[in-house]
Write a sequence for this structure.
């Protein structure tokens, strides 16, 4: 009999399991993962950017968790000697129409108590000589990069060392009175925490939650460059459209100092559509097409977004977009797509809109993390603390 069972072996599931061990030291904790290893979906395919927390409105959970999460993850990487690239970030404007967007992000940063500085075009070039911006830019010194696989490997070892029972190749099948039925049999449990990412809504429905929500997946791709490490000094991001939970095509520096362009936010047609026909599920295709159609009908600009994203399958087009942010971008150096990731974006089926913030539902028997999307990797430790504190009250 487990006191707690965590469903999902990504960054969120691991962080919650470890926080449970901290707060309930004598408890029996199991973590189940349907794949043969942990972190094979969003967590292991993450960009590795540790965000600062200035994109989000001050009343959101994202704003609440990102600043603290950045500090906690940074400290963890330092303690475990996980390489961290403290490269910072520039947010640049293409023209005068984007200057109000810079000002809005600066206001959010101040409200969220996040360090962010409005700098001149010349000051931006001092940080990154190749940058293109109109008159001003924002500089975020606390944005950095880490290899997400290094973090996941370290957390898995921590969990194992602390007696958390990790069960891979163990898929959730359905809720039972005594616990949960898995592909390896009945797992008795006192409390269930659902951190299943792309399937979190389906599991939550078994417990009577996620009535108004369904997952609407989006595929993210990065185009990797062959520029020598050090050719770019900092992340370069555009001013985002704050109506959507995507940040636009940007330059990202990896923990090793290599450059990549992306990500896309292409509509996916089933939950794990990493490649053209990978893990095809017809029933998911039909339901997701229905949600996409519903969004198109209520949000006309989504059509433009979808068309724009499909154009990004062209490497030339992606490099062209990125070249608006940076000088001397050689298309011949950006030829290799990285592993795609799927964003488990939550869709409100009653209001026909994409959910912008984290969403959590639960009761005295279970808790369900329904929208742990970016910047959830950054927020993992602070988010986990919040989840477990809710169980203590």
């Amino acid at each position: 009999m487990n006191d707690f069972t965590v469903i999902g072996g990504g960054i969120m599931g691991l962080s919650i399991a470890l926080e449970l061990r901290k707060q309930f030291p004598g408890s029996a904790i199991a973590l189940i993962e349907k794949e043969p290893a942990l972190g094979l979906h969003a967590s292991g395919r993450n960009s590795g950017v540790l965000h600062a927390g200035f994109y989000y409105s001050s009343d959101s959970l994202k704003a609440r968790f990102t600043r603290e999460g950045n500090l906690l993850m940074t400290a963890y990487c330092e303690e475990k000697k996980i390489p961290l690239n403290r490269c910072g970030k520039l947010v640049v404007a293409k023209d005068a129409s984007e200057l109000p967007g810079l000002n809005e992000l600066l206001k959010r940063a101040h409200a969220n108590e996040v360090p962010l500085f409005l700098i001149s075009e010349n000051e931006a070039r001092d940080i990154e000589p190749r940058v293109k911006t109109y008159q001003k830019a924002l500089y975020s010194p606390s944005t950095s990069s880490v290899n997400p696989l290094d973090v996941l490997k370290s957390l898995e070892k921590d969990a194992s060392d602390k007696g958390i029972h990790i069960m891979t190749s163990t898929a959730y099948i359905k809720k039972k009175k005594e616990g949960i039925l898995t592909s390896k049999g009945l797992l008795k449990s006192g409390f269930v925490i659902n951190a299943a990412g792309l399937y979190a809504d389906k599991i939550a429905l078994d417990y009577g939650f996620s009535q108004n929500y369904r997952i609407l997946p989006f595929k993210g791709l990065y185009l990797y460059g062959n520029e020598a490490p050090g050719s770019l000094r900092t992340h370069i991001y555009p001013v985002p459209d704050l109506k959507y939970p995507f940040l636009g095509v940007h330059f990202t520096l990896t923990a090793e100092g290599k450059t990549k362009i992306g990500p896309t936010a292409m509509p996916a047609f089933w939950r794990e559509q990493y490649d053209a026909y990978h893990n095809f599920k017809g029933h998911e295709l039909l339901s997701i097409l229905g949600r996409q159609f519903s969004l198109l009908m209520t949000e006309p600009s989504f059509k433009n977004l979808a068309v724009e994203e499909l154009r990004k399958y062209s490497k030339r087009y992606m490099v062209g977009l990125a070249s608006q942010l940076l000088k001397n971008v050689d298309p011949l150096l950006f030829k290799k797509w990285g592993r795609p990731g799927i964003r488990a974006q939550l869709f409100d089926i009653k209001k026909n809109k994409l959910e912008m913030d984290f969403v959590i539902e639960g009761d005295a028997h279970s808790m369900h993390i329904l929208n742990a999307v970016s910047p959830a990797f950054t927020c993992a430790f602070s988010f986990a603390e919040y989840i477990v504190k809710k169980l203590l009250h």
Residues 8 and 195 are 5 Å apart (CA to CA).
